[in-house]
Structures are given as structure tokens and as C-alpha cells.
Amino acid sequence: MTKKRSLLGHYPLVVTDLDGTLLDRESYSFAAALPALEELQRRGIPLILNSSKTATEMLELQRALGIQTPFIAENGAGLYRVTATGDSQLWHSFAAQREVVLGHLCELRDEHQYRFRGFADMSPVEISACTGLTPAQAVAAAARAFSEPLQWQDTAERLHLFMQQITDAGLYAVQGGRFLTVTGPCNKGAALKALLQELGVLDSAYVVALGDSPNDIELLQSADVAVVIRSVHSEPLQVEGPARVIRSQAEGPSGWQEVMQTLLAEPALQTERL
Ligand SMILES: [Mg+2]
């Protein structure tokens, strides 16, 4: 991956969540963010995708975006790189395999009769019905290595108890835009730190991170500039740590474009021309 120095001497990187952030929550389109995306590419600023999606889904999107940068899948569980032939390859994993997670979930459900449905309980048709993904995309979404997205169908009170039991089992549950995702303890921020270390830019990177949901908090808090994309589906995120926190007015890719357009005008994201 090529990195370019900014006029201020550091390596700017843009790290983004996908659903509800770079991608429209309903249509999954990034069209509204195209002007900023193209400008990043023109300046040679790497765009790193960091999502709860699977590697299969993310590689597809990387192709659509025309990028070959490393990416982080399944809420920080897996760091992948793209090979010379354009395939994805697991580089580092930060969580237990999905089978371990499913084993714990089955035990909890048997013992407490919880009402929830996970991807493991659904056919691709059902996944496509509750996500709006096409059947082919639903198959890619079901190809999970580390995590299990759940639709909670029980009471809020029992959710509280369930969350406690998940923690006691050494697992981690986080609410994304659409699902409660259960994995081994990992997060998007820690995985990003590992990537920066691999790239040798842990201290010299200038990270702009964008996200919209509670599963983006650690990512946002590990950035130099945290961009909170407006979402009507979650409470306003409390982000502590970064020197700057910017909140978009618009939702999804329109909000992405709105904030990135402002940041691209600043010296921190100006790179020496090719
Ligand atoms: Mg999101």
C-alpha cells in the first residue's frame, strides 16, 4: 500500500465504517460520497474500510470502489490484505472463530429460552428479507468467520441479562445499525491500531475515522479526527479522546461527503502532488 505524506509531514489515512456511514442504510449506495472518494484517490490518501461486514462482502465493495488497501472485517475481528491477484487474505485475527461464538449462543438459548434469530438460523432468503440485500449479497453476508449478527426478539429486560451472560462467557456484543453482533472481545479501534503498526505509521499517521453507531466508538476514539455521521437509529454517540469530533448534518454517504469536503480543504489532508 502506498502512503503519501501530507504538507504537514504525517501520513493521512481515512478509515470508514460502511453501513449507515459510507453506504446508504437502505440502498447500500456510496454514490453521494463519490466526489470526496475520487479526491482521496487523486491525492493518494489511503481509504481503509472497517466494518461489521464479512471479508467476502468487503472485497466486493473494494472492487466497486477501485481500491486494494488492507481492510478490517467483522467488527475488528479480522484484518485482511489484498493479494496481487486481487483476492483477500487473512493477515491477523483478533477473536475466536465463529463456531466458538455459536456454541455459547446455543447454550444460552437452551438454558434460558431466549428469543433471538441469528444468521445461523436464517436462510439466505430470510437474511435478504431482513437486510434488503440481494440473495447473492446475503450469501456473502452469511460467510462469517468470527461473528454472529442477531435480531433480538425478546424483552429489553432479558437483553440486559443476556448481555451480562455474553460478557461472562468471555464474548462481546455490540449494537450496530441493524443487528446485535456477538464476537470474541475485539473492536474496530484495536484492529486499526494493529494495522497502523503493520504499516509502520502508528505514530506518524493522521487518522480521520468516520462512523455512525455504537460499534464505531473505539474506532472514533482512536482517531485524530472523529467524524460522527448522523443516524436516526442510534442515540448521539459520546466520543472522548480525539482532539476533534465533527458531527455531520446529513446521514450516510451525504454526511460523509459533507464532512470530507470540509476536511479535504485543510492542510492535514493536502498531499504533495503526484
Ligand atoms: Mg454503521
Automatic annotation (TrEMBL):
Keywords in alphabetical order: Hydrolase, Magnesium, Metal-binding
GO molecular function per UniProt: hydrolase activity
Keyword Metal-binding listed: yes
Pfam families documented for this protein: Hydrolase_3
Organism: Candidatus Litorirhabdus singularis
Protein name, UniProt field: HAD-IIB family hydrolase
Keyword Coiled coil: no
InterPro entries: HAD-like_sf, HAD-SF-IIB-MPGP, HAD-SF_hydro_IIB, HAD_sf
